[in-house]
Amino acid sequence: MHPIKVENPLNLITQKCTLGCPILDHLLDGGVPCNSITELVAESGCGKTQLCLQLLLCAQLPASRGGLGAASFYIHSEFPFPLRRLRQLSLSFPHPTAMTPWTASLSMQSEFDNKPSDLKRRSSLFFGIAGKLKSIAKRFSLAIVVTNQVVDLIDSDGANGLQVGNFGYLYSSGRRVCPALGLSWANCINSRLFLSRCKEAGTIATSGSEDQSCGELGVMMMKRRMQVVFAPHLPESSCEFVIVREGVFGVGS
Ligand SMILES: Nc1ncnc2c1ncn2[C@@H]1O[C@H](COP(=O)(O)OP(=O)(O)OP(=O)(O)O)[C@@H](O)[C@H]1O
Questions:
Q1: Which among 90, 109, 210 is the best mutation to test ligand 1's pocket, defined by most ligand atoms within 8 Å of the CB?
Q2: Cα–Cα dist 52/145, whole Å
Q3: Origin, by domain of life (predicted)?
Q4: pLDDT in tens, 148-167
Q5: 145 three-state secondary structure
Q6: How high is the pLDDT of residue 107?
Q7: What span, in angstroms and rounded, lies between the C-alpha atoms of 33 and 15?
Q8: What is the separation of C-alpha 27 from the centre of its chain, rounded to a whole number of angstroms?
Q9: Distance (Å, rounded) from C-alpha 71 to C-alpha 49?
Q10: Which homologous superfamily is 9-251 in?
Q11: Closest atom of ligand 1 relative to the 222 alpha carbon
């Protein structure tokens, strides 16, 4: 008797956008899925922007190269937009069509207090934004990627300590952290990927990395990891990655 391989029905119909690296694509079972919202959550400097810039270029690649063969759109909420880095990355992921990065001010956190009425308003704003994004994604078959910061987790008994997804706790730079946009936002997105980093003593294996420094232990290198926190089509999994001049790439184990 032969075992029957059951394909996830979502994978059969959902187009995916390559991340520009076979190892990262393998982690995501082909790339970032269309028709849904994928979140990258990480502390500052972990690679959210780098990955988004890379996806901006990859989406424009033809389907034969894993792209969506379509235009891409980046809403950047901080100034300045990293145009130089985008140009540098475009040498690694060539053939982009015209790109129009847009900047927009989306300061959702600072406009709200911790009062119940503000929290309620904030939640309904999240649901409104996510609902619009999802309907646009479905209507035009878009792959939507959003980013989220983290905050240090101090009170693990509070709401922030609730486990959402595969991991009890998320660690980055040796600290316990949790996504800055809380539980209601977690219910608005379809998939969450956590990027983290830690410094370890070791030898430098990659060239062109800005992650090298000399500490008391000698040469330090930055270890970065991408973890699937939750996704309807993916198991709990993770892989290491590096950021180099040419882009963001997974590291095989
Ligand atoms: N040209 C480059 N070559 C190699 N590494 C680079 C290059 N540009 C940026 N990096 C790496 O990317 C890191 C910054 O990543 P990125 O800007 O994506 O962080 P982020 O998660 O978006 O942070 P923030 O939340 O503050 O915007 C730098 O610390 C550096 O290690």
A1: 210
A2: 8
A3: Eukaryota
A4: 999 998 866 555 556 778 88
A5: strand
A6: 46
A7: 6
A8: 13
A9: 18
A10: P-loop containing nucleotide triphosphate hydrolases (3.40.50.300)
A11: 31
Helix segments in 73-115, DSSP class H = 83-90
Whether the pLDDT of residue 197 is over 80: the answer is yes
Residue whose CA is at the smallest distance from ligand 1 atom 26: 44
Q: Report residue 215 as tokens.
A: 């500490």
* Residues contacting ligand 1 via CB (< 6 Å): 42, 44-50, 85, 88, 149, 208-211, 243-245
Pocket test for ligand 1, best of 48, 50, 91, 198 (most atoms within 8 A of CB): 50
CA of 120 to the centre of ligand 1 (A): 34
ipTM score above 0.90: yes
* Nearest C-alpha neighbor of 24 from the set 241, 247, 243: 241
**What is the full DSSP assignment across 154-223?**
--TTSGGGS--SS-S-EEETTEEEEESS-HHHHTT-SEEEEEEEEEEE-----SS-S-EEEETTEEEEEE
User: What tokens does 184 get?
Assistant: 């209601």
Structure tokens at 226: 């991408």
Give the pairing type, strands 36-42 and 143-148. Answer: parallel
Taking phi first (over 0 means left), then psi (-120 to 50 degrees means alpha), and beta for anything else, what does residue 128 get?
A: alpha
Round to whole Å and give the CA distance between 172 and 195. Answer: 8
Tokens representing 76 are 């950047």
Q: For tokens 């410094």, name the residue.
A: 199
Residue 12 has pLDDT above 70, yes or no: no
Task: Tell me what percent of the residues of the chain surpass a pLDDT of 90.
Answer: 60
Structure tokens belonging to residue 70: 């379509």
Output the residue whose Cα is nearest ligand 1's atom 14. 45
